[in-house]
Each structure stands twice: as C-alpha cells, then as structure tokens.
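REQUEST ID: PR-0412
SUBMITTED BY: lab tech R.K.
PRIORITY: routine
TASK: structure prediction, single protein chain
INPUT:
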Amino acid sequence: MDKSLKMKIGAGIAALAIVVTGGGYYYFHMKSDSPETAIKAVSQSVKEHDVKGFHQAVNVDTLLDSGYAGFVNGLSSFDNSMTPDARDAVKTFTEMLRAPLMLSLKSAIDSYVATGDLNLKENVGVAEILQRTGLNDIEVRDIRNIELNDANRKEAFADVIVFQPELGKEFPIQITLTRNDDNKWQVVRVQNFQEYVSQIVQARRLLLDDYLAKAGEINARHGAIIRDAEQKYGSILAVGNLGQDKTRSELKTLITDVLKKDWEERKQELFSLRVPKDAETLHNLYMKICDIYIDAAQDYAKWMDDKNAATIKAAESKIHQAQTLTSEAMAIAKRMTS
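STATUS: complete
OUTPUT:
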C-alpha cells in the first residue's frame, strides 16, 4: 500500500471520498462482494471519474448527515464557557444551515468525482468547512480494522487512518458500511467525527493561546522600553528646548536609536511567531501598528532637522492612527483570551 497517497475531501465533513494520486489505489485480498470491495470502489470510482459508481459505493446523504452532526457538536464541545442555552442556540442556528450546506457539499462531491475539481466557487461554504475541520490538509496513510459486526452481519466497520498536521499525529476516522437494498456493501456513516473535530478545535485553541501569550509578552516588554524612552524624551526637554540645536540633536538620536529601533525589533519578533489562522487579523494589526510607529519616528526625526510644520503634523497624525489601532488590537486580544 502506498503510504504517501493523499486524501482529497469531496464532502468536507465526510472525509471519505478517497482520492489516490500517483496512479495507485488501495488493494485488498477480498471476496468479490465484501466491505473491502466497497472501500476500493470509492477510490476507483474517483480515479475513473465514475459518479454513478461512487454513489453505489457511498450513501452520500447518510454520510453527510452523520458528519454534519459531528461537525456541529465537535465545534462546540471544547468551549466550556458556553451555557446550555447558548449551546442550544448555536445548534438551532446550524440546523438552519444544514440543508443549503448539504446541497453544496453534495454538489462539490459530484464535481470532484466527475472532474477532479471541488468547484468551490459554485459551492459556497465548502471551503470554509474544509478549513474549519482541517480536512484540506490531511493525508490518508492506511485503511485498517475492516471487520463485520458480530451482532449484525449486514454491518461492517473500518478505520481510515489519516495524518493531520495540526494534531501532529494519526487519527482513525471510523466509518460504517452496510448492505443496501441491492445487497451491495456501501459506506453509510462516519462514527467519530465529533471526536476528530473536537481535537482539531482543542489543538487550534492551544496554538492560539500560545500565540496570544508570546505576542503579549513581546508587546509588554517593548512597551516598557518605549515608556522609558518617552521619559528620557521628557527629561531632555526639561533641561533644554526645541529651539536649541543640541536639544534637537539629542531628541533625534533618541528617536532613531531607541524608539524607531525598538519598534523595528518588536516587529521582527512578532513576525517570527507562528500565527494560527484565528489570530491572523490580530497579527496583521500588530504588524500595521509597528509600521505606523516606525514611519512616525522617521517623521519626528526628520522634523528635528527641517523644523517643517507639515512634517510634525504628519508624525502626529500617524501617532494618533497607531494609538487608535492599538486600542482596537487590545480589545481583540482580550476577547480572544477570554
């Protein structure tokens, strides 16, 4: 079995439309009619762009139905701050989205099987589900534990072993197969999608907390340096005045060698952080704040030489803009932390 085979997800929350690249697919020692046959048929139908064959091997409706329930429950299960009423409200809202999302997912599946393209532009919401569940970056490594249900010989189970980079480990997506009305085996459900989504949510929350802590430490440490520099700025003015070349020279040195340099160092430290997707807006805001303060410092340093009113006005405008964005960033970080 080719361990490097990639898994493309036609049904975002289903994780079962196994697409094998490189010209190979999963082989089993099997009878002509067995659960293994159905699993191989999933792969082969996608490889051959056989939509009819895919639907014979997969009951898309029941598969998506079970996956959607796991998706919704998994997203909310890790949020301990949610009250029972809030959790019920979220579930009610997501149930309203079920029908249109199911149509989009089914359309994406058929498009992928037929053409190899999910056609995300026409299937609104599918790309978001793929990202939210981390299914757009998983790798199928094996299919294991294919076995009949001892209590019901018309039911079977199998584990689709995937590697999820955000989890940093393999995860067994458990699927159920049953004999349909034509007495053929068919993939019908995913059993543990809630557990999978919960682990993704938890991993992302831990990554987000780590980013917030590290970014907070960087901002706090450099904030102390800036405050100290501002006190020195006041001290220089206390013993001199802006009409003196010596005073303006000392202030320019402080601005360029301390204030501007510190903002540049802060930006570099923030830039080096691993930024989770949920923190991208905040991180971009931090970067913009640094850039504005750096530009403002350049303007202040220039003003110490040219004494031009337009130069100081530009610097003060940038400082005001940076202060406004800083307040916005603090509010966002506080909401994300709580």
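NOTES: The mean pLDDT is 83.
REVIEWED BY: pending
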